[in-house]
Here is the input.
Amino acid sequence: MARIDVAFVAQVRAALAEQVSSIVDEAAGDTWQHLQHRQLAERIKALAAAWLNTTTPIEPPSTPDLPGAADLLGCTERLAVRLRELQGSSGLFTGGDNVDSPPDSAFSINDLADALLLLRRAGRAQRLTGLLEQLLTAAMPALTSGGVHTPNHRWEISAALARLHLLWPQPALAERVDQWLAEGVDIDDDGLYSERSANYAAYVSNPSLLTIAEVFGRPELVDAVERNLDATLDLLLPDGSVETVLSRRQDQHRSMPLGAYLLPLRQVARLRGRGDLSWAADLALAHGIAAPAAAATGIALDPANALALPDPVRPPHTRQRVFGTAGLLVDHRPATTTVVFGGSDYARHRRIRSGLANSPTFLRLFAGAAVLDSVRLSRTFFGLGPFRSDRLVVQRGDGETSVALAEAVSAAYFQPLAPADRDARGRYRVDDEGRFSAAMDFDRRGRDEVTLTTTIRVELTPAGVALTVDVYGADVPWALELAFRPGGTMTGAREISGRRWQLDAIPAGPDGAYYQVGDDALSVTVVEATDGRGGPLTASGAEPAYHPGEEYEFLGGTDAAAGERLYVAAQAPARLRIEVGRYRPLATSAPVI
Here is the structure.
């Protein structure tokens, strides 16, 4: 007989109790009047799950008490009335940047539909049931005919339509889901969705596809989610987060905890008998319950979600994965984890945009508590910003791995117009030159190109990496920026200003910089510094700094890395070779293998 995962259920109930307590406390003020529809709908779902828990408790009962059923019901009705005030004539909810947005409303509809399914299951609370039915039926036409503007929206809307189909089975709802699914799930051969976003995989695509699969009997959608979770195992970093440098969405600039994947991990581990996903689910659970209402609702609507998982099986300590389409390599070893990224969309699109992978971070290295969060190459070259590789080429041989990254950027000076293209009034078309726009008719002019080419070779070593950087073409200053996670101590480098340091590349020698956090440390050593032709390197007179590029600076913005930043500066043309590795501070043989 299948066992209940008592510890999981208890943790869900405790997390739900905490969430509900916070929601009930809000009722004392006017907080609800300032919440947007998605926040209100989430609260309704949480209160409905808690109300059902007070009427038909989930085992075990020895967890924190929830407020009384009457209190919960009253709060939920007030929230539903407030939400009705935010529903426009189209049935969509108002508020937020996106106006009359079917996908934004779909997030709320998914939560409200779950709440209504819970209430129908209980067979009570008729007034609240009626309020939710009004909200959902009013939105149904807009969701059945409305459009989207991001890839994951298709699955969020389809999940909402699936839930509505559970409540009110209608051919039109199923047909609309079929239309979206007929486009194909946007997942590549490596298991990454097209947005390559951990956030949207965890919170939108995976749970939505699992819902659609369950309602309409589409096991191939579970296959897609399983492939994404396989990828997630290899993207999992030692700090318990999922790598985001490859993302095309907002999370490319922030950490994403594995905890967000908890519910899809548990569901697929159970459905497919996957011990490795059970292991990941246990790790995710250790981070806490990110979505208590969703977890509690999932258990209440399908008690199988509370069952114990297969015995956990930890993935191998030593493994390596190349995500070819995304241009990413992740190398896991007992002492270190290395991430190399060469899949920026900037090389192709030449612009910074939401929906593109823009991060200039090309290397990350984990060595226990000492973490090198970001390595970038910054240069002063026509405001074009930092190095962003247009390729990732992996070479393996004799048990060793190296990765080649490269980029060539150019800017132009423009010649006078030909006589036939001149306008005596000086009126010319406003063109985009690639860096800026001006009334110059750029495409009719001859160009004098100035080019800067950068190649970086990353060799994986037992202790970390060896970087060989070649910058040639224009004579410009540039610098490697190594940003370490805060909390440690930097030695062996010259402090420039608060949390900024410089390691001299001239002359190259055995001494380096060391960044230590507790008993863990990383060393940075310059082993070669030449002018690219074998001669001595010419030092740049400028103080090294990070330059985000004109697209940020024109707006007064930046994408600068945080933390303790160490710079190694040079003047092109130049070759710089440095080694970064795990270091045992108290040992005489520095690297840890």
